[in-house]
Write a structure and sequence with these properties.
320 residues; single chain; mainly alpha; cell membrane; 14 helices
């Protein structure tokens, strides 16, 4: 009884009428019966060409470029966040960022009187130079580098709570700096008007330099922000380097005072960046060599920022 049941259960579409159909099913295969069998994919290299994956560093760079592109599409959000940061920073203050403007005006006035006497400079020419140089250095160099070091660590809560492009934080930092710069540029413009120093349309030649500063600020945020998120001792080091660079860069003193010893400017990366903006605003046309040095320095900075950011991007959320 049990044997008969087992015999019927073995008979299937592949078994013939012979006894022991389960054991001789392979002898009854036909093209029609083989059509119901699943297809076995061919191994790599036989049925299709194998495509090697891209190197890891290439994938990292592509991911970093996509992050930058996604951040650029969120420029409205960057404007809103940067403006909100300024409002929160000066919440409850009567003058807000204009306190920086007032302190800068007092400092520039005092330094102009003292250093003008020490350097035997005419105040009519020295005071506009000093006012513009000090604001460009304080906000455009020292301020940007200081903010760049804490670009990602200051946005710790947002980075861990919301999945957003990291480049958005760099844009947010530059919006804050641009607002502060807009408040402080009033000081040199006021000095220009007070002393009757105005160079008209020639001052528009500073716009390419301002655009170069914007690119450098974003690159500095990606470079220093990534490094300082991992190594928290870097911001004090950057501050010390910037302080030393302030004294060896023509900010309080003029480049013409070196009297032929201008070889130092070839090694100072801050000098050409200052000149491409400061020169046109003072009615001077920067030499082609200055533009080449500023462009090469900016290109190297962008490449270094892209490399460091691509290597550290996947770990930033854990470092901040």
């Amino acid at each position: 009884m049990f044997g008969a049941t087992t015999s019927r259960s073995c008979i299937g579409p592949l078994a013939g009428p012979q006894e022991g159909g389960c054991g001789r099913a392979a002898d009854q295969l036909t093209p029609k019966s083989m059509s119901i069998l699943p297809e076995i994919p061919a191994p790599d290299g036989m049925g299709r060409q194998h495509v090697a994956p891209a190197p890891r560093q290439v994938r990292r760079v592509v991911a970093a470029l996509r992050d930058i592109g996604a951040g650029l599409t969120m420029w409205r959000l960057a404007l809103s966040l940067g403006w909100l940061d300024i409002r929160l920073r000066y919440r409850g203050s009567a003058l807000g960022p204009f306190w920086l403007t007032l302190s800068s005006a007092i400092m520039i006035g005092a330094m102009g009187l003292i250093y003008g006497r020490l350097f035997h400079m005419d105040l009519h020419g020295y005071l506009p130079y000093l006012a513009l140089s000090m604001i460009l250095w304080q906000v455009g160099v020292s301020g940007v580098l200081g903010e760049a070091c804490t670009c990602f660590t200051d946005a710790e809560r947002m980075i861990r709570a919301v999945r957003l492009p990291f480049f958005l934080q760099a844009m947010r930092m530059m919006v804050r700096t641009a607002i502060v710069f807009g408040h402080n540029i009033v000081v040199p413009l006021g000095v220009f008007l007070l002393l009757g120093v105005w160079h008209g349309a020639a001052m528009l030649m500073a716009l390419p330099g301002v655009a170069l500063w914007l690119v450098n600020g974003l690159a500095s945020a990606l470079l220093l922000g990534s490094i300082c998120a991992r190594f928290r001792d870097i911001p004090p080091i950057v501050g010390s380097v910037v302080q030393v660079a302030f004294y060896v860069t023509p900010v309080m003193w003029s480049a013409s005072q070196l009297k032929g010893r201008d070889w130092w400017f070839e090694l100072n990366p801050f000098y050409p960046l200052l000149e491409v903006v400061r020169g046109p605003l003072l009615g001077q046309v920067p030499a082609l060599r200055i533009w080449v040095e500023a462009g090469l320095g900016s290109g190297l900075l962008c490449l270094a920022a892209l490399y460091v950011f691509s290597r550290s991007r996947s770990q930033l959320a854990f470092w901040v």
